[in-house]
Amino acid sequence: xxxxxxxxxxxxxxxxxxFFRGWSWEAxxxxxxxxxxxxxxxxxxxALTLFCQYALEIANANGVTVxxxxxxxxxxxxYAVRAGLFELFGSAxxxxxxSIDSSRLVPLARIHKSSEIPAFANGVISLLEIxxxxxxxxxxxxxxxxxxNVVQHSHSRTGGxxxxxxxxxxxxxxxxxxxxxxxxxxxxxxxxxxxxxxLSALRLALLPHVSGTFANSAYSTMRDNAGLGLFFIKExxxxxxxxxxxxxxxxxVDLWGNLDGSPGRKYFEARTNGWPGTFAYVQFRRDHxxxxxxxxxxxxxxxxxxxxxxxxLNLDFIDEVPEIEGLRVIHVGRFEEDTDEAARVREQQIIxxxxxxxxxxxxxxxxxxxxxxxxxxxxxxILRESPQARHALSIANSTSATAxxxxxxxxxxxxxxx
Length: 418
Hints:
Layout: E1 2-6, E2 10-11, H1 16-22, E3 32-36, E4 42-43, H2 45-62, E5 65-69, H3 75-82, H4 85-88, E6 105-111, H5 117-128, H6 133-153, E7 160-167, E8 172-179, H7 184-188, H8 198-205, H9 229-239, E9 243-249, E10 251-257, E11 263-269, E12 275-285, H10 292-307, E13 317-318, E14 327-331, H11 339-355, E15 359-363, H12 372-385, H13 389-392, E16 393-396, H14 400-413
Parallel strand pairs: 1-3, 2-4, 3-5, 13-16, 14-15, 15-16
Antiparallel strand pairs: 6-7, 7-8, 8-12, 9-10, 9-12, 10-11
Helix pairs in contact: 5-6, 6-9, 9-10, 10-14, 11-12, 12-14
């Protein structure tokens, strides 16, 4: 017995809210799942990502196969092939789809662990060929943080699914990330057990220093994640005149930035059973992207205001690695944005070296804009618990954007309640 999911005829960006409020995602158990795109004429990246993640979840959870039905004459059919639909489900492309070009987008990619995140983020930068360092850094930052939320908080058996595309005609970069995990409300419930709805959980998750990894008292322990991921993403997107959608369960938040600099925000609730997990959709306007370094400074200042404690640790930033004996140099670029490896290096190399009286230099050469989450994994415990860090730890070759992230981590590592 098979169940067929028929994708609607048109799902563009302007259809997202209407679709979210009215579509019912059900958990089916059948011998075969048919994902039918034959009647679809146009699909935005968010729509293709949601339907593919939904099909993956059913296939993997219930041990069923997925059969694809496409019309190569439609824009939606060609786009799905370009986005790697057949490869995602382990199928060979039929002959009629063999010549379809896959340029100007990063195909659908499954993300299960932290070490897979940098490859996708770098793929976006290299394949889109944007040619603008500020926008490249913003795109990479947003992708890394979005995917890290999936890895750390979704608890999904199938991981997450990501897709990114640059539209030259409009100058917009769009990225979609989706998972069928526990959802934002359940992820936050250990620290915030009284959240009354999915929408209230989303509103809370967008505040600085709110995370499923620590409790809610004064943005408490901050052991594993500093809780700035979603906050930074929505600030980067909306302050550049773009948009940011985030949905989970029955809640959906629509955020955007007007070209005059004013923010816009709307809340929605699904009339049916909503999305079984969490999804996010980011839109950047290339011609209106703000200066990335300045933007990170603004975000750090906003986060500090929310903490009500702007104190910062005295950090030793140096321009280059000194040539002295007995110096332990950690080349951070070798494991850029891999938080698992960063934690391992912290525990097995940096802390023992500091405790043993060695001078340690963290060399950030080659990293244009380290994310706050990555810096947190690498440095938070050191700055919080190692008194030797004040006189034996230096940071070399960091860009101003990376320095902002380091200062943010140092600020809350030095707060009494952290």
